[in-house]
Amino acid sequence: MTAQNSAIAPVAVAVPVRGPTARRGLLLAALGVTAFSLTFPATAWALEGLGPWTVTCARTVLAALIAGCCLLAVRASPPPNRHLPGLALVAGGCVIGFPLLTTLALTTSGTAHSAVVIGLLPLTTAGYAAARTGSRPPRAFWAAAVAGAAVVITFAIHESDGALATGDLYLFAALLICAAGYGEGGRLAGLMPGWHVISWALVGSLPLALPGLALALAAEPAHLTGHAVAGVLWLAAGSSFFGLVVWYRGLALAGVARASQLQLAQPLLTLVWSVALLDERLGPAAVATAAGVLICVAATQRAARRAGPRRRSGRDRTTRSSTAAGVP
Predict the structure, then answer these.
(1) Which of 5, 89, 220, 262 is most deeply buried (CB count within 10 A of its CB)?
(2) Within the chain, how many helices (H) and strands (E) appear?
């Protein structure tokens, strides 16, 4: 990345957007969260007939094929070389790392438990975005986000009898790498069409995922069932492609730090799906934690809305206008 581009890139994400554009971004981000909330139940279904490595590679291969077909349909040009490191981070964090680690976690942890722990993702994403772009959300924003994280950590320790289980370690590792992928994807979505970000990241992962799928099928027994097939199909089309397309679009329009806090509501949605699709029984601690998380969602959004717009230079305003025009 040239010196000029490195100076411009953070501006497109750091400058807060308000009004109809921000509301539209939040709506798209909420749609993405709804798609993501089905990820853990779909993974549990897929694991009924497939191994964790097979599930991860299969969803990536199928999603990459969908993304490749979409890119060919619009005759999309390859991304500039300066965006390749960012796309590699998106691929490593969102396409491969997070799906693999959470799938491994679900082999030892329940869906509801895992969903609540992943409630920490908005905080880690906002932290990465702040460090990467130099943005400074208000203190009330951070206080609410940290409160939500504390609620989730307390829940995880309580559910594990005072110590973190192996599944929790997988989940916390997934949080860190996915936050980097989300943050970098949100930055790139301000510089190129948002759906191109995840599409090129998926296509770029195909050379690893395709041989990985062949090795996984040879090492792990596969027993295809209706649930297993449906689970993998949703993970590929819904979670890995559609969900990330609208998610990155929402991040670009509303801002990474603000839009990412909507994902605090994801645990509650996943708890609902877990009961409806997996017949899991929810304990009072899970329900109380999910309710506390929702309170934190409202608090972070209120803090973001009340923060006054920062004064921008003419160059900043020009940069924001040019990058916003490039987003579909």
Answers:
(1) 262
(2) 17, 0
